[in-house]
């Protein structure tokens, strides 16, 4: 596996985690968004990831190794519960005085955010390690 492949794999993983963080931010930002109808309440977003396998088969003589990248296939709306609250003074309340809020689990979203951040940081470490390995090879070339 060439260093290029490692950069591509880590880069696609970082991109996927960035999309994941963006959807989490949207979910948290809209957790308290009110609507006058249950259907108008915000629905949380979730990215759909897919593994994309490289075309290379394992072949030591050709220095070819299999690889797998991650891609964001889609960002979907996840229908969830809707919280109905009686707020007759809210300008968005319906004729019965009810307002509808998305049933977003803020604790779950925060946990997802920490997981996505850690995954992103791990891939940054992969890139830093590859960079360090390449610099070590360059030093060997200069000394040898």
TrEMBL record:
InterPro entries: Flag_bb_rod_N, Flg_bb/hook_C_dom, FlgC. Residues 97-140 form the Flagellar basal-body/hook protein C-terminal domain. Residues 8-32 form the Flagellar basal body rod protein N-terminal domain. Pfam families: Flg_bb_rod, Flg_bbr_C. GO terms for cellular component: bacterial-type flagellum basal body, rod. The keyword Cell cycle does not apply. It is found in: Bacterial flagellum basal body. It comes from the Bacteria. One of its GO terms (biological process) is bacterial-type flagellum-dependent swarming motility. The basal body constitutes a major portion of the flagellar organelle and consists of four rings (L,P,S, and M) mounted on a central rod. The rod consists of about 26 subunits of FlgG in the distal portion, and FlgB, FlgC and FlgF are thought to build up the proximal portion of the rod with about 6 subunits each. Belongs to the flagella basal body rod proteins family. This is Flagellar basal-body rod protein FlgC. It comes from Paraphotobacterium marinum. The lineage of its organism: Bacteria, Pseudomonadati, Pseudomonadota, Gammaproteobacteria, Vibrionales.
């Amino acid at each position: 596996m060439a260093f290029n492949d490692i950069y591509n794999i880590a880069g696609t993983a970082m991109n996927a985690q960035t999309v994941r963080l963006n959807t989490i931010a949207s979910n948290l930002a809209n957790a308290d968004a009110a609507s006058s109808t249950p259907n108008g309440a915000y629905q949380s977003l979730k990215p759909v990831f897919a593994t994309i396998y490289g075309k290379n088969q394992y072949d030591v003589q050709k220095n070819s190794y299999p690889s797998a990248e991650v891609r964001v296939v889609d960002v979907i709306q996840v229908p969830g519960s809707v919280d109905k609250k009686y707020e007759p003074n809210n300008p968005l309340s319906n004729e019965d005085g009810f307002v509808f809020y998305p049933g977003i689990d803020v604790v779950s979203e925060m946990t997802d955010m920490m997981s996505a951040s850690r995954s992103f940081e791990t891939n940054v470490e992969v890139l830093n390690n590859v960079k360090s390995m390449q610099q070590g090879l360059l030093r060997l070339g200069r000394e040898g």
